[in-house]
Amino acid sequence: MTEHKVGTREEWLAARDALLEREKDLTRRNDELARERRELPWVRVEKEYSFETEDGPKTLAELFNGRSQLVIYHFMFGPAYTAGCPVCSSSADSFDGAVAHLRARDVTFLCVSRAPLEQLQAYRRRMGWSFPWVSSQGSDFNFDFGAAHTQDELAPILQGNLGPVPELAAECGTDAAGYLAEGPVFSAFAREDEVVYHTYSTSARGLEFMLGFYAYLDRAPKGRDEGDPPEMWIRRHDEYENAKTTSR
């Protein structure tokens, strides 16, 4: 028999109504946070950056593609990688469907990584994606926006408990240092009168909104069910069957 509390429909409705009030409060607080994000001061981007795209080299301003807003996901795929980060890849499975809707609201979306463009394109073909993806190879862009790290910055981190990092690094064809040289970040920019402004960035658990499947799991009976410490269960979508076979 289940170890979970079992009740009547009436008991469920009463508990659900009480929880609904808290969910509504959270929704209102999220709306307020969204407003506060929009009210952050904008920072003028003074440095010139160059990106390799399918249409040749472009500046940051040109990445807007004629729109006034640009949102970027700094996808963990560094020069030392042979494949993109599995967790970033799980996020990316939802990007294609969002692109058209964002464009309809004057927002350009794309991913930026430090690996060579041809490597990013090959991986995108493997995964069946079509969203725009550009390379910042040779540029300070990812470093300047907290999505790439120097050896000096990594040194103290590499001396600590790395948790699932060695496993993730191996899945990307690199070592812990190579893997951690990259970081996932979401950044937003605005363009007014030919001037580009940085408006927002978030990382770590601030990126959970991009892991759409977590919202489903949070409402499933067992939740995320990842254990403590959390199990590193996320795979690229074309690897789950192999992982299941291997675990038997």
Sum up the structure in keywords.
single chain, 248 residues, alpha/beta, 6-stranded mixed sheet, two-stranded antiparallel sheet, 17% strand
Count of alpha/pi helices: 11
Give me the oligomer status.
single chain
Largest sheet: 6 strands, mixed
Q: What Rg do the Cα atoms give?
A: 21 Å
Strand arrangement in the largest pleated sheet: 1-8-7-4-5-6
Structural class: alpha/beta
- Compute the separation of the termini in Å: 26 Å
- What is the number of strand segments? 8
Layout of strands and helices, then pairs:
Layout: H1 9-38, E1 43-44, E2 50-53, E3 56-59, H2 60-63, E4 69-74, H3 86-92, H4 95-104, E5 107-113, H5 117-127, E6 133-135, H6 141-144, H7 151-158, H8 165-171, H9 176-180, E7 185-192, E8 195-203, H10 212-217, H11 240-247
Parallel strand pairs: 4-5, 5-6
Antiparallel strand pairs: 1-8, 2-3, 4-7, 7-8
Mind explaining what this structure looks like?
With 248 residues, the chain is α/β, with parallel strands linked by helices. 40% of the residues lie in helices and 17% in strands. The chain has eleven helices and eight strands. It has helices at residues 9-38, 60-63, 86-92, 95-104, 117-127, 141-144, 151-158, 165-171, 176-180, 212-217, 240-247; strands at residues 43-44, 50-53, 56-59, 69-74, 107-113, 133-135, 185-192, 195-203. A six-stranded mixed sheet has the order 1-8-7-4-5-6. Strands 2-3 form a two-stranded antiparallel sheet. β2 (50-53) and β3 form a beta hairpin. The longest helix has 30 residues, at 9-38. The radius of gyration is 21 Å and the shape is globular.
